[in-house]
Amino acid sequence: MALPLPRPHRVDVQISVGSVLAGLALWGLGLYTRTDDDWLLGGTWALIPLFVLAGLELLRRSNPQTALVVGTLALIADQFTAGNLASVLMFTDIMYAAVVYGTPAAARRIPVTTGLITVAVTIGFLAWFRDPQAILIGVLTGLVSFAPATTGVLVRTHREAAVAARLRAEQTALLAEMDRVQAVTGERARMARELHDMVANHLSAIAIHSTAALSLDDPKTTKDALCVIRENSVEGLAEMRRLIGILRDSSDDREPAASPTLDGLGTLVGNARTNGLDVTLDDTRAPDDSKLPAPVELAAYRIIQESLTNALKHASPGPVTVTLTQRRHALEVRVTSPYGSASGPRAPGSGAGLVGMRERTELLGGTFESGPESSDALHDGKIWNVRATLPVDPSDLDPIDEGVTE
Asked: Cα(99)–Cα(114) distance, rounded to whole angstroms?
């Protein structure tokens, strides 16, 4: 089944019709490209190449190579008639279109071929006529073939450069949009971690103690639970205000609240003890150890905070140990708690805490692991172990590092 021919472009139709009308006008006025009477065919025969080339103009975009081959034969045939200037001009346009709309190989080959033909025609007619005026024939050949081919190369190169520039601009815009989406996603994840780590501990304590107050008919227990609930509510509200302060517009003149550091571990552990945990802090760092970078301190603080929150919600009764070990290239954080079912009230968990701790560690290029381990110190022989190794670049440390352990 034969494929239908493509519909000619509107501009190509206009060129074809305009060229035919111009050629007919020249033919009607008796204006030919050859002024002598030495024609093999009469002037009317010049209309045949004219109409053939006009038909080929309709194929200048869809099938430029075929149009060029047939157009070349039509131009040669026109030389045996009186000739028509419109036919010559249409051939130059077909030559130009063959370079602009043809294949890349044709665009490279046609200018070279027309250049060689121009040189060969010039040398050939100069050797035949032995007259310097024969060079004019070579010039005319170059104007009809080589000049439009060279113009087509320039136009095609310019168009390809414009297309490449547009593609680069689109790719740049796409990459910028991807960076924006990643930045927004990363910021939302950071906000989610901060919100969870700051508030979850207090809300978990409130949930557990409120459940205990409701389930036990003991005025002293109820009073103690209400005191813990009030304390955690106040601290949770303060943490929320701090987060709101961080999220405020940068145009706000107030200074943002400082991020928590490892200097506040004593208060954090004290709050955990108030909430009912038997916590022991084992900080093996020397007093003169180098000051850690702020992101490392924040990550370590939040990991310990979330580990204590998980212990409060899920651990069975028993000792909870927080261990900090600073080395030259890393800070090791370890939190252990009894592994088993809690005997008292429990707060529901979503698993977001472990995800947040792992994300904080990976953002710093560290390693994180959590899970039950065997232990001879407990009656059931198992503990829940959280271990995070946070890399520290030595160049980020303060000059005083004599106390850093290897």
From this structure: 11
What 3-state class would DSSP assign to 340?
coil
Please give the tally of structural domains in the chain.
Answer: 2
**357 assigned to some structural domain:** yes
Cα–Cα distance between 65 and 67 in angstroms, integer?
5
Please check whether residue 398 is in contact with residue 291, taking contact to mean a CB–CB distance below 8 angstroms: yes
Bridging pattern class, strands 367-374 and 319-326: unpaired
* pTM over the 0.90 mark: no
Integer angstrom CA distances of residue 313 from 84, 147, 208, 308? 98, 85, 8, 9
- Contact predicate 340/316, CB 8 Å: yes
The rounded distance, in Å, linking the Cα atoms of 385 and 373 is 7
CB 53 within 8 A of CB 16: no
Nearest in space to 311 (alpha carbons), one of 236, 237, 385: 385
Residue 355 CA to residue 373 CA, distance in Å, equals 20
Q: For residue 343, what is the enclosing H or E element?
A: none
How far does Cα 310 stand from its chain's mean position? 37
Judgement on whether residues 157 and 290 belong to the same structural domain of the protein: no
Question: Do 37 and 148 lie in a common domain?
Answer: yes
Residue 5 domain-assigned (yes or no): no
Tokens 């045939």 label which residue? Answer: 77
Q: Structural domain of residue 165, as residue ranges?
A: 10-172
Count of H-run helices and E-run strands, the chain: 11, 5
The reply to whether 275 and 153 lie within a common domain is no
Alpha helix (H) residue ranges in 79-218: 85-101, 104-129, 135-141, 147-215
Helix (H) / strand (E) containing 42: none
Same domain, 403 and 272: yes
Whether 243 maps to a domain, the answer reads no
Amino acid at 257: A
Phi, psi of 387 (to 5 degrees): -130, 130
- Residue 207 covered by a domain: no
pLDDT tens for each residue of 10-64: 898 999 999 999 999 988 888 887 766 665 676 788 899 999 999 999 999 989 9
Give the helix/strand (H/E) hosting 384.
strand 382-391
CA max distance for the chain:
131
Q: What is the pLDDT of residues 184-229, one digit of tens each?
A: 887 777 777 766 666 666 666 676 667 666 666 667 767 667 776 7
CB atoms within 10 A of CB 320: 23
